Amino acid sequence: MIAGSIVICTHNRAGLLARCVRRALDEARACGGELLVVDNASTDDTPAVLAALSAPGLLRVVHEPRVGLSAARNRGLAEVQSAVAVFLDDDAVPRPGWLRSHLDLYGAPVVACVGGRINVQLPVARPSWLTPPLEKSLTAYDLGEPTRRYRAGDEYPCGANVSYRVTVAQALGGFSLLVGPRGRRLLQHDDTDLCCRIERAGGEMMYSHEAVVDHHILADRLVPGWFLARHWEHGQSGAIFHLRNFGFRRALGRLRWHYRPHLLRLPYAPREPVDAVRLLAECQRREALGYLVGLVLSLPRAHLLRRDMTTPARGLAA
Question: Where do the domains of the chain lie?
Fold first, then answer.
Protein backbone atom coordinates (compact mmCIF):
# COMPACT_ATOMS: atom_id res chain seq x y z
CA MET A 1 0.00 0.00 0.00
CA ILE A 2 1.29 3.46 -0.91
CA ALA A 3 2.22 5.78 1.98
CA GLY A 4 -0.19 8.54 2.90
CA SER A 5 -0.22 11.66 5.06
CA ILE A 6 -3.43 13.03 6.56
CA VAL A 7 -3.58 16.83 6.33
CA ILE A 8 -5.95 18.91 8.48
CA CYS A 9 -5.98 22.66 7.84
CA THR A 10 -7.52 24.66 10.68
CA HIS A 11 -8.27 28.29 11.49
CA ASN A 12 -9.75 29.24 14.88
CA ARG A 13 -11.59 25.97 15.41
CA ALA A 14 -10.10 24.96 18.77
CA GLY A 15 -13.46 23.73 20.05
CA LEU A 16 -13.85 21.23 17.19
CA LEU A 17 -10.29 20.19 16.55
CA ALA A 18 -9.63 17.56 19.23
CA ARG A 19 -12.31 15.13 18.06
CA CYS A 20 -11.13 15.31 14.46
CA VAL A 21 -7.44 14.94 15.35
CA ARG A 22 -7.95 11.97 17.69
CA ARG A 23 -9.83 9.98 15.04
CA ALA A 24 -7.32 10.97 12.36
CA LEU A 25 -4.47 9.75 14.59
CA ASP A 26 -6.19 6.36 14.84
CA GLU A 27 -6.33 6.17 11.05
CA ALA A 28 -2.66 7.20 10.70
CA ARG A 29 -1.56 4.53 13.19
CA ALA A 30 -3.53 1.84 11.38
CA CYS A 31 -1.80 2.59 8.07
CA GLY A 32 1.68 3.56 9.24
CA GLY A 33 1.13 7.13 8.09
CA GLU A 34 1.42 10.58 9.63
CA LEU A 35 -0.93 13.39 10.57
CA LEU A 36 0.03 16.93 9.60
CA VAL A 37 -2.00 19.79 11.07
CA VAL A 38 -1.60 23.16 9.35
CA ASP A 39 -2.46 25.93 11.79
CA ASN A 40 -3.64 28.69 9.47
CA ALA A 41 -2.96 31.83 11.54
CA SER A 42 -5.24 30.80 14.41
CA THR A 43 -5.64 33.31 17.24
CA ASP A 44 -7.66 31.10 19.62
CA ASP A 45 -6.59 28.12 21.76
CA THR A 46 -5.63 25.96 18.78
CA PRO A 47 -1.90 25.72 19.77
CA ALA A 48 -2.83 24.58 23.28
CA VAL A 49 -5.29 21.98 21.99
CA LEU A 50 -2.67 20.54 19.63
CA ALA A 51 -0.01 20.54 22.34
CA ALA A 52 -2.30 18.45 24.56
CA LEU A 53 -2.76 15.95 21.72
CA SER A 54 0.97 15.45 21.25
CA ALA A 55 1.84 12.19 19.50
CA PRO A 56 5.61 12.15 18.77
CA GLY A 57 6.49 10.55 15.46
CA LEU A 58 2.87 10.59 14.35
CA LEU A 59 1.57 14.16 14.67
CA ARG A 60 3.31 17.23 13.26
CA VAL A 61 2.09 20.83 13.40
CA VAL A 62 3.17 23.59 11.03
CA HIS A 63 2.06 27.21 10.89
CA GLU A 64 0.91 28.99 7.75
CA PRO A 65 0.61 32.77 8.31
CA ARG A 66 -1.28 33.57 5.08
CA VAL A 67 -4.99 33.33 5.88
CA GLY A 68 -6.86 31.17 3.38
CA LEU A 69 -7.61 27.50 2.91
CA SER A 70 -5.73 27.26 -0.39
CA ALA A 71 -2.59 28.73 1.17
CA ALA A 72 -2.87 26.26 4.06
CA ARG A 73 -3.37 23.31 1.73
CA ASN A 74 -0.39 24.29 -0.40
CA ARG A 75 1.68 24.39 2.78
CA GLY A 76 0.40 20.91 3.53
CA LEU A 77 1.46 19.65 0.09
CA ALA A 78 4.92 21.12 0.65
CA GLU A 79 5.35 19.61 4.12
CA VAL A 80 3.99 16.05 3.82
CA GLN A 81 6.45 13.18 3.84
CA SER A 82 4.31 10.73 1.83
CA ALA A 83 3.34 10.20 -1.78
CA VAL A 84 -0.33 10.93 -1.11
CA ALA A 85 -1.88 13.84 0.84
CA VAL A 86 -5.31 13.01 2.26
CA PHE A 87 -7.21 16.16 3.21
CA LEU A 88 -9.71 16.18 6.06
CA ASP A 89 -11.71 19.20 7.29
CA ASP A 90 -11.34 20.12 10.94
CA ASP A 91 -15.09 19.61 11.49
CA ALA A 92 -15.14 16.17 9.83
CA VAL A 93 -14.57 12.83 11.58
CA PRO A 94 -13.34 9.83 9.58
CA ARG A 95 -14.89 6.40 10.03
CA PRO A 96 -12.67 3.35 10.61
CA GLY A 97 -10.89 2.27 7.43
CA TRP A 98 -11.20 5.71 5.86
CA LEU A 99 -7.49 6.25 5.18
CA ARG A 100 -6.89 2.74 3.88
CA SER A 101 -9.84 3.12 1.49
CA HIS A 102 -8.15 6.18 -0.01
CA LEU A 103 -4.68 4.68 -0.27
CA ASP A 104 -5.80 1.34 -1.74
CA LEU A 105 -6.91 3.14 -4.91
CA TYR A 106 -3.45 4.55 -5.71
CA GLY A 107 -2.04 1.27 -7.03
CA ALA A 108 -2.03 2.54 -10.61
CA PRO A 109 0.41 5.43 -11.24
CA VAL A 110 -2.17 7.28 -13.36
CA VAL A 111 -4.51 7.73 -10.36
CA ALA A 112 -4.03 11.31 -9.20
CA CYS A 113 -7.04 11.97 -6.98
CA VAL A 114 -9.54 10.04 -4.83
CA GLY A 115 -12.76 11.46 -3.42
CA GLY A 116 -14.83 9.92 -0.65
CA ARG A 117 -18.33 9.96 0.77
CA ILE A 118 -19.43 12.75 3.15
CA ASN A 119 -22.35 12.30 5.52
CA VAL A 120 -23.82 15.43 7.09
CA GLN A 121 -24.38 15.33 10.86
CA LEU A 122 -26.69 18.05 12.19
CA PRO A 123 -26.46 19.34 15.80
CA VAL A 124 -30.23 19.91 16.04
CA ALA A 125 -33.40 18.60 14.43
CA ARG A 126 -33.44 19.09 10.67
CA PRO A 127 -35.22 22.33 9.72
CA SER A 128 -38.24 21.68 7.54
CA TRP A 129 -36.80 23.93 4.80
CA LEU A 130 -33.48 22.03 4.55
CA THR A 131 -34.15 20.05 1.38
CA PRO A 132 -31.60 17.72 -0.31
CA PRO A 133 -30.56 20.36 -2.89
CA LEU A 134 -29.71 22.78 -0.08
CA GLU A 135 -27.90 20.09 1.89
CA LYS A 136 -25.20 20.08 -0.80
CA SER A 137 -24.16 23.48 0.53
CA LEU A 138 -23.17 21.64 3.72
CA THR A 139 -20.86 19.43 1.59
CA ALA A 140 -23.07 16.37 1.60
CA TYR A 141 -21.46 14.14 -1.04
CA ASP A 142 -22.37 10.64 -2.23
CA LEU A 143 -22.00 9.33 -5.77
CA GLY A 144 -23.54 6.02 -4.72
CA GLU A 145 -22.04 2.58 -4.72
CA PRO A 146 -19.74 1.11 -5.85
CA THR A 147 -16.19 2.47 -5.75
CA ARG A 148 -15.37 3.46 -9.35
CA ARG A 149 -13.64 5.87 -11.70
CA TYR A 150 -15.14 9.31 -12.13
CA ARG A 151 -17.34 9.63 -15.19
CA ALA A 152 -18.33 12.63 -17.28
CA GLY A 153 -21.01 14.57 -15.43
CA ASP A 154 -19.94 13.45 -11.95
CA GLU A 155 -19.43 16.16 -9.37
CA TYR A 156 -15.77 16.56 -8.47
CA PRO A 157 -14.72 15.51 -4.95
CA CYS A 158 -15.32 17.80 -1.97
CA GLY A 159 -12.43 19.12 0.09
CA ALA A 160 -13.71 17.65 3.36
CA ASN A 161 -12.73 14.20 2.10
CA VAL A 162 -10.30 14.11 -0.82
CA SER A 163 -6.74 12.95 -1.51
CA TYR A 164 -4.14 13.81 -4.15
CA ARG A 165 -0.92 12.32 -5.41
CA VAL A 166 1.47 15.00 -4.17
CA THR A 167 3.74 15.18 -7.22
CA VAL A 168 0.76 15.65 -9.52
CA ALA A 169 -0.90 18.35 -7.42
CA GLN A 170 2.38 20.27 -7.18
CA ALA A 171 3.21 19.85 -10.87
CA LEU A 172 -0.15 21.41 -11.75
CA GLY A 173 0.38 24.41 -9.48
CA GLY A 174 -1.37 23.19 -6.33
CA PHE A 175 -4.43 25.00 -5.01
CA SER A 176 -5.22 28.36 -6.57
CA LEU A 177 -5.12 31.29 -4.15
CA LEU A 178 -7.84 32.95 -6.25
CA VAL A 179 -10.57 30.63 -4.92
CA GLY A 180 -11.37 28.82 -1.69
CA PRO A 181 -12.38 30.17 1.76
CA ARG A 182 -10.39 33.12 3.08
CA GLY A 183 -11.25 34.40 6.55
CA ARG A 184 -14.94 35.33 6.56
CA ARG A 185 -15.31 34.87 2.81
CA LEU A 186 -16.98 31.63 1.76
CA LEU A 187 -15.40 31.37 -1.69
CA GLN A 188 -15.35 27.81 -3.00
CA HIS A 189 -14.14 25.90 -6.08
CA ASP A 190 -10.62 25.29 -4.72
CA ASP A 191 -10.79 21.52 -5.13
CA THR A 192 -12.92 21.85 -8.26
CA ASP A 193 -10.23 24.01 -9.84
CA LEU A 194 -7.44 21.52 -9.09
CA CYS A 195 -9.52 18.51 -10.16
CA CYS A 196 -10.34 20.21 -13.45
CA ARG A 197 -6.62 20.69 -14.14
CA ILE A 198 -5.92 17.06 -13.20
CA GLU A 199 -8.57 15.81 -15.59
CA ARG A 200 -7.32 18.08 -18.39
CA ALA A 201 -3.77 16.77 -17.87
CA GLY A 202 -4.89 13.15 -18.20
CA GLY A 203 -4.85 12.18 -14.55
CA GLU A 204 -7.39 9.63 -13.35
CA MET A 205 -9.80 10.32 -10.48
CA MET A 206 -11.49 7.65 -8.37
CA TYR A 207 -14.51 7.68 -6.08
CA SER A 208 -14.34 5.56 -2.91
CA HIS A 209 -17.73 4.77 -1.40
CA GLU A 210 -15.97 3.16 1.57
CA ALA A 211 -13.86 6.24 2.46
CA VAL A 212 -16.46 7.90 4.68
CA VAL A 213 -16.37 10.95 6.93
CA ASP A 214 -19.09 12.48 9.09
CA HIS A 215 -19.23 16.23 8.59
CA HIS A 216 -20.45 17.88 11.81
CA ILE A 217 -22.30 21.08 11.03
CA LEU A 218 -22.15 24.09 13.33
CA ALA A 219 -25.54 25.22 14.60
CA ASP A 220 -25.03 28.79 13.38
CA ARG A 221 -25.05 27.53 9.80
CA LEU A 222 -28.59 26.19 10.03
CA VAL A 223 -30.26 29.50 9.27
CA PRO A 224 -31.51 30.71 5.87
CA GLY A 225 -29.10 33.65 5.86
CA TRP A 226 -26.07 31.36 5.89
CA PHE A 227 -27.31 29.49 2.83
CA LEU A 228 -28.04 32.71 0.98
CA ALA A 229 -24.49 33.96 1.65
CA ARG A 230 -23.03 30.58 0.71
CA HIS A 231 -24.76 30.61 -2.67
CA TRP A 232 -23.71 34.20 -3.35
CA GLU A 233 -20.06 33.31 -2.75
CA HIS A 234 -20.44 30.10 -4.74
CA GLY A 235 -21.57 32.17 -7.71
CA GLN A 236 -18.66 34.59 -7.35
CA SER A 237 -16.01 31.89 -7.11
CA GLY A 238 -17.75 29.99 -9.91
CA ALA A 239 -17.20 32.95 -12.23
CA ILE A 240 -13.49 32.95 -11.39
CA PHE A 241 -13.31 29.19 -11.90
CA HIS A 242 -14.97 29.30 -15.33
CA LEU A 243 -12.91 32.24 -16.56
CA ARG A 244 -9.70 30.50 -15.42
CA ASN A 245 -10.44 27.10 -16.85
CA PHE A 246 -12.63 27.74 -19.89
CA GLY A 247 -12.24 31.36 -20.94
CA PHE A 248 -14.64 34.26 -21.40
CA ARG A 249 -16.96 32.77 -24.05
CA ARG A 250 -17.67 29.63 -22.03
CA ALA A 251 -18.12 31.65 -18.83
CA LEU A 252 -20.55 33.98 -20.59
CA GLY A 253 -22.37 30.98 -22.05
CA ARG A 254 -22.88 29.56 -18.56
CA LEU A 255 -24.36 32.87 -17.46
CA ARG A 256 -26.71 32.86 -20.42
CA TRP A 257 -27.87 29.25 -20.43
CA HIS A 258 -27.57 28.16 -16.80
CA TYR A 259 -28.06 31.26 -14.67
CA ARG A 260 -30.33 33.54 -16.71
CA PRO A 261 -33.61 31.84 -15.65
CA HIS A 262 -32.67 32.30 -11.99
CA LEU A 263 -31.83 35.98 -12.49
CA LEU A 264 -35.40 36.63 -13.64
CA ARG A 265 -36.99 35.35 -10.42
CA LEU A 266 -38.59 37.65 -7.85
CA PRO A 267 -36.63 38.15 -4.62
CA TYR A 268 -37.66 36.34 -1.45
CA ALA A 269 -36.79 37.46 2.12
CA PRO A 270 -37.13 34.35 4.32
CA ARG A 271 -39.34 34.75 7.38
CA GLU A 272 -40.89 32.15 9.67
CA PRO A 273 -42.41 29.91 8.59
CA VAL A 274 -39.79 29.59 5.85
CA ASP A 275 -41.08 28.46 2.46
CA ALA A 276 -38.68 25.69 1.38
CA VAL A 277 -39.41 26.06 -2.33
CA ARG A 278 -38.99 29.83 -2.34
CA LEU A 279 -35.84 29.64 -0.20
CA LEU A 280 -34.21 27.27 -2.69
CA ALA A 281 -35.25 29.57 -5.54
CA GLU A 282 -33.78 32.58 -3.72
CA CYS A 283 -30.51 30.72 -3.11
CA GLN A 284 -30.34 29.97 -6.83
CA ARG A 285 -31.08 33.62 -7.61
CA ARG A 286 -28.34 34.79 -5.23
CA GLU A 287 -25.88 32.36 -6.82
CA ALA A 288 -26.76 33.66 -10.28
CA LEU A 289 -26.28 37.26 -9.13
CA GLY A 290 -22.98 36.32 -7.52
CA TYR A 291 -21.83 34.75 -10.77
CA LEU A 292 -22.81 37.85 -12.75
CA VAL A 293 -21.02 40.19 -10.33
CA GLY A 294 -18.01 37.89 -10.15
CA LEU A 295 -17.79 37.78 -13.94
CA VAL A 296 -17.96 41.57 -14.26
CA LEU A 297 -15.37 42.15 -11.54
CA SER A 298 -13.01 39.47 -12.86
CA LEU A 299 -13.04 40.39 -16.55
CA PRO A 300 -10.35 43.12 -16.23
CA ARG A 301 -7.93 40.53 -14.87
CA ALA A 302 -9.02 37.57 -16.98
CA HIS A 303 -5.54 37.19 -18.47
CA LEU A 304 -4.06 37.01 -14.97
CA LEU A 305 -6.60 34.38 -13.92
CA ARG A 306 -5.41 32.12 -16.73
CA ARG A 307 -1.72 32.85 -16.22
CA ASP A 308 -0.97 29.66 -14.30
CA MET A 309 -3.16 27.44 -16.47
CA THR A 310 -0.24 26.66 -18.79
CA THR A 311 1.80 24.99 -16.01
CA PRO A 312 3.45 21.88 -17.52
CA ALA A 313 1.71 18.67 -16.41
CA ARG A 314 4.80 17.00 -15.04
CA GLY A 315 4.65 14.11 -12.62
CA LEU A 316 1.37 12.47 -13.66
CA ALA A 317 2.97 9.04 -13.65
CA ALA A 318 5.32 9.67 -10.73
Answer: 4-219, 224-307
The Cα 114–Cα 107 span in angstroms is 12
Per residue in 253-290, pLDDT tens? 999 999 999 999 999 999 999 999 999 999 999 999 99
Averaged pLDDT, 133-157: 92
Angle subtended at Cα 140 by Cα 67 and Cα 65, rounded to the nearest 5 degrees: 10
* First-to-last C-alpha distance (Å) of the chain: 15
How far is the C-alpha of 5 from the C-alpha of 86, rounded, in Å? Answer: 6
CATH architecture classification, 4-219: Alpha-Beta Complex (3.90)
Question: Which ranges constitute the DSSP H helices of the chain?
Answer: 14-31, 46-52, 69-79, 98-103, 132-135, 166-171, 190-200, 224-254, 260-263, 276-298, 302-305
pLDDT digits (tens, 9 = 90+) for 70-117: 999 999 999 999 999 999 999 999 999 999 999 999 999 999 999 999
